[in-house]
UniProtKB/TrEMBL annotation:
GO cellular component, one term: cytosol
CDD domains: GlnRS_core
InterPro entries noted in UniProt: aa-tRNA-synth_I_CS, Gln-tRNA-synth, Gln-tRNA-synth_Ib_RNA-bd_2, Gln-tRNA-synth_Ib_RNA-bd_N, Gln-tRNA-synth_Ib_RNA-bd_N_2, Gln/Glu-tRNA_Ligase, Glu/Gln-tRNA-synth, Glu/Gln-tRNA-synth_Ib_cat-dom
Chain intervals for the UniProt region annotation (Disordered): 94-116
Name of the gene: Qars
Protein name as it appears in the record: glutamine--tRNA ligase
Native source species: Nothoprocta pentlandii
Domain Glutamyl/glutaminyl-tRNA synthetase class Ib anti-codon binding: 476-576
């Protein structure tokens, strides 16, 4: 109670009377009060006590009694509870001494189990809370806006309360967070957690979130990264309260740097980068140079009188990880994309981060765990300048196995031709996942299932894919496609012209509509759905073994197998019978008729090992671990005509094959239609249809997890 009071009243002078009252000083609790409180609690649970006897949780009685009498002695309360329970139940019997039998919980049905799944440490565990439920203030135990001083480790100065009062006047007590990416690369799956945490926490608590580009390194920044970052934030379903840049505040940051020097907290140093690297280095020989001298030298830095690496501005502090006097400014003769040639000195992350948070009145500065070592410097710098000091909170990073997310390594993959670009669907950048067909909702669900953890989470990709299947099962309409076509001619087709077959968009819920598919004498099935020689477990089409054609109401039986000179099967001639007039077939197969010729890209993992960056697992380096079968392009695929007007990123479930998404490349192609009577896969039988786009499909995920994986 004393500590709680002091945290809530950090400034002196201390109101002794109020302090003692909050601590219970002088409060006297009589035995009669204890007896009455325990009697009320026992009476409240009387029926349960009589039913469970001594197997009842007595701690519950203790807790309720203590909540009624906060200042009573715990031992006295326990003695009174024991006495009253003994009076009610009498002495323990042999039955009371027997061990309580274990109760087995009923196992949930598969659908329930899947719905309740939550990922923890790479495994599926207990029921998941929604992201907003996890991020509400009462769940995370974060400080309330304006109560920064109640946070463990927060430094209170004589100006703290006045600054917090000004802060509340600006924000009105609203939660403010920010997502501060560096615009020097494309966001990846780990950033999805950061986006969800920062934007989600603000949303869950009625606040706002800034998108702030940390554009303090002009050498590596490109306009395409700024655009892509915002696109991905909005794709995940979030709208920034404001889009800002660290460069917006360069003038203010420079003014504060001068003030830091004047106060004796910073100095100009001439040590080389190699000399100040590592932990616990020797103090700089220029650490104690006069403030006036550092002011003149810092001005010379700004005017370009020092070359790159010849001078830096360093702050006088030792960080939690032992790093001494971190750099605040360095010289870089690189034009900035927004400020041009105005500056040749640029602030570092250590200097910029907390001060930009202060300028924007951020209430909760949410960072990944590796920034914990910077928390003390975060507080120190704000307090050294007497400006509003937000609170930094850390959470665990999200990593995936079988991939790399380092910008440098992805650039190497692009340069070597292992992948086409940052959005290659085999990568786990957000642009790549979108291109592959992963819905934003599925990525957000995955982040929610990983949870708001302090520990780093390293997950298997199939857990993300499971979230994708859950969403696409509800959102992706069904279509039929054949990847390796085999021509089938129905010799007794029941109509003089093609029939229209109605196919439900979602077979489990036909109220969501149907689409028409032409059914004519020439159809195409998968080559693997026919065998001349069958084994015991084979149930699909074979001589003497009919199959049903999905959605048609017909069963087909083989009459003739047509082969080329080399013995390859080129065509089947079959007869069809109405389903109600034929024996029930062992299987139903999908098919296409008058189809679209499309390109389909099938993806597997890019790397063979779980940790391609680990020298112990992959001694030759990550480039030696590439999976040669990570991409297979099928250019003989045929898809039913219901998808002809599909736009880029449209998603479908191809029956029996998996979930597929239309690739943006589709807009540059021309559709081709398999001619009636033609023999696919021969390219000569395909004729161009102007000016429709040819569709290119990426396989997003298979229908079920491959049991051979992991």
């Amino acid at each position: 109670a004393a500590l709680d009071y002091l945290k809530s009243h950090p400034l002196e002078p201390l109101d002794t009377a109020a302090f003692e009252q909050a601590c219970g000083v002088g409060v006297s609790v009589s035995p009669e009060q204890i007896e009455e409180a325990v009697e009320a609690v026992v009476s409240r649970h009387r029926a349960e006590l009589l039913a469970e006897r001594y197997r009842f949780n007595m701690g519950l009685l203790m807790g309720e009694a203590r909540s009624r009498l906060r200042w009573a002695d715990g031992k006295t309360i326990k003695n009174e509870v024991d006495l009253q329970v003994l009076h009610l139940l009498g002495p323990k019997t042999e039955a009371d001494l027997e061990k309580k039998p274990k109760t087995t919980k009923a196992r949930p049905a598969p659908a329930e189990k899947q719905k309740a799944a939550v990922v923890e440490n790479g495994e599926v565990g207990t029921e998941a809370l929604s992201l907003l439920e996890q991020l509400r203030g009462e769940a995370l135990k974060f400080h309330k806006p304006g109560e920064n001083y109640k946070t463990e480790g927060y430094v209170v100065t004589p100006n703290t309360m006045a600054l917090l009062k000004q802060h509340l006047a600006v924000t009105g007590g609203q939660v403010r967070t920010r997502f501060p990416p560096e615009p020097n690369g494309i966001l990846h799956i780990g950033h999805a957690k950061a986006i969800n945490f920062n934007f989600g926490y603000a949303k869950a608590n009625g606040g706002v979130c800034f998108l702030r580009y940390d554009d303090t390194n002009p050498e590596k920044e490109e306009e395409k990264y700024f655009t892509a970052i915002r696109d991905m934030v909005e794709w995940l379903g979030y709208q920034p309260y404001a889009v800002t840049h660290a460069s917006d505040y360069f003038d203010q940051l420079y003014t504060w740097a001068l003030e830091l020097i004047r106060r004796g907290h910073a100095y100009v140093c001439h040590q080389k980068v190699e000399e100040i690297k590592g932990h616990n280095p020797a103090p700089s020989p220029w650490r104690d140079r006069p403030a006036e001298e550092s002011l003149l030298l810092f001005e010379d830095m700004r005017k370009g009188k020092f070359g790159e690496g010849e001078a830096t501005l360093r702050m006088k502090l030792v960080m939690e990880d032992g790093k001494m006097d971190p750099v605040a400014y360095r010289v870089k003769f690189t034009p900035h994309h927004r400020t041009g040639d105005k500056w040749c000195i640029y602030p570092t992350y250590d200097y910029t981060h907390c001060l930009c948070d202060s300028i924007e009145h951020i209430t909760h500065s949410l960072c990944t765990k590796e920034f914990q070592a910077r928390r003390s410097s975060y507080f120190w710098l704000c307090n050294a300048l007497d400006v509003y000091c937000p609170v930094q909170w850390e959470y665990g990073r999200l990593n995936l196995l079988y991939t790399v997310v380092s910008k440098r390594k992805i650039i190497r993959l692009v340069e070597t031709g292992a992948v086409r670009d940052w959005d290659d669907p085999r990568l786990f950048t957000l642009t790549a996942l979108r291109r592959r067909g992963f819905p934003a909702e599925a990525i957000n669900n995955f982040c929610a299932r990983v949870g708001v953890t302090v520990a780093q989470a390293t997950m298997e990709p199939h857990l993300l894919e499971a979230c994708v299947r859950e969403v696409l099962n509800e959102k992706a309409p069904r279509a039929m496609a054949v990847l390796e076509p085999l021509k089938v001619t129905i010799t007794n087709f029941p109509a003089p012209e093609a029939l229209d077959v109605l196919v439900p968009n979602f077979p489990a819920d036909e109220s969501r509509g149907f689409h028409k598919v032409p059914f004519e004498p020439t159809i195409y099935i998968e080559e693997t759905d026919f065998r001349e020689d069958v084994d015991k477990g084979y149930k699909r089409l074979a001589p003497g073994q009919p199959v049903g054609l999905r959605h048609t109401g017909y069963v087909i039986a083989v009459q003739n197998v047509i082969k080329d000179a080399g013995g390859r099967i080129m065509e089947l001639e079959v007869t069809c019978t109405k389903s109600d007039a034929a024996d029930k077939p062992k299987a139903f197969i999908h098919w296409v008729s008058e189809p679209l010729a499309c390109e389909v890209r099938l993806y597997e993992r890019l790397f063979l090992h779980k940790n391609p960056e680990d020298p112990a697992e992959v001694p030759g380096g990550f480039l030696s671990d590439l999976n040669p079968d990570s991409l297979r392009v099928v250019d003989t695929a045929l898809v039913d005509r219901s998808v002809v007007s599909a736009q880029p990123f449209s998603k479908f479930q191809f029956e029996r094959l998996g979930y597929f998404s239309v690739d943006p490349d589709s807009s540059a192609r021309k559709v081709r239609l398999a001619e009636r009577g033609g023999s696919v896969p021969s390219r000569r039988v395909l004729r161009a249809l102007p000016p429709s786009p040819q569709l290119v499909f990426n396989r997003t995920v298979t229908l079920k997890e491959d049991p051979g994986k992991d």
